[in-house]
Amino acid sequence: MTMKIGFIGAGNMASALVGGLLAKGLNPKSIALADMHLPQLQRFADQGMFTTTRNEEVIERADIVILSVKPQVMAEVLKPLATIIQQKKPLIISIAAGINVDSLNRWLGGDLSIVRAMPNTPALVQTGATGLYASPLVSFEQRQQTETVLGAVGLTLWVDDEALIDSVTAVSGSGPAYFFYVMEAMISAGKALGLDEKTARALTLQTALGAAQMAITSDEPPAELRKRVTSKGGTTERAIATFDEANMQQIFAQALAACAARGQELATILGQQE
């Protein structure tokens, strides 16, 4: 890899991306990071990466600039950088939730190649899923570069309509929390049935891992896999019937719709930063 990548913000997701890129063979000297917290930068510096508290120094060194600061301070961080960004015209990749391309373009002076990315927390263990949307000025080569960067921590998929990023958020961006919630409920139920905490947790987590692996490797849809383990008149059928009586599918539909709607609300609110 010959890309020169700069990170504005050196938090958990930036750390995950750096780790994935290094594992894929990127030279540490091709990575620059800026963050206001010096202790956050030390571990990157120790690996041979350029670190600084000045965002401009990162942009000077980068062909690709990854925005990984909190959405609430994005406008404040970006506006002072508009001049140097306009001079350099790097590819901009934003991994900040709720900030749309129009807002990023406005804060940085316009006419930029911008990719909006929605990763999820399993990226921290290189098994993430990231939805991507490219602004009209993003070239084919820049799309490939984006896939290389985000693909270092898992699956990448493009959407053609930026509004679908809110749908991506609802399914995969927030999705890990739904699975953790189900795991939490299963562990609690297992304990209520007499299992100790350690046993209930181990059985739940291994079952989640195994089910996910089966779904990933099988040519059959999850519905068919479920049917295969749901014997007529058996224990699993009784459990599924209980879920159906509680309208579980409808509950999931409502929850994901609420998540997507909140994403739209946040884009409006955060885009009003001046």
Summarize the helices and strands and which ones pair or pack.
Blueprint: E1 5-8, H1 12-23, E2 31-34, H2 38-45, E3 50-52, H3 55-61, E4 64-67, H4 74-78, H5 82-88, E5 91-94, H6 101-108, E6 114-118, E7 128-134, H7 140-151, E8 154-158, H8 164-173, H9 175-192, H10 197-217, H11 222-228, H12 235-245, H13 248-270
Parallel strand pairs: 1-2, 1-4, 2-3, 4-5, 5-6, 7-8
Antiparallel strand pairs: 6-7
What does this structure look like?
By secondary structure, the chain is of the alpha/beta class. It folds into two domains: 156 residues, Rossmann fold; 90 residues, ProC C-terminal domain-like fold, CATH 1.10.3730. 54% of the residues lie in helices and 13% in strands. The chain is built from 13 helices and eight strands. Strands 3-2-1-4-5-6-7-8 form an eight-stranded mixed β-sheet, with helices on both faces. Helix 8 packs across helix 13 and helix 9 packs across helix 10. It is elongated. The two termini are 37 Å apart. The model has no long low-confidence stretch (mean pLDDT 96).
Summarize the structure.
It is built from 13 helices and eight strands.
Keywords:
13 helices, ProC C-terminal domain-like fold, alpha/beta, 2 domains, Rossmann fold
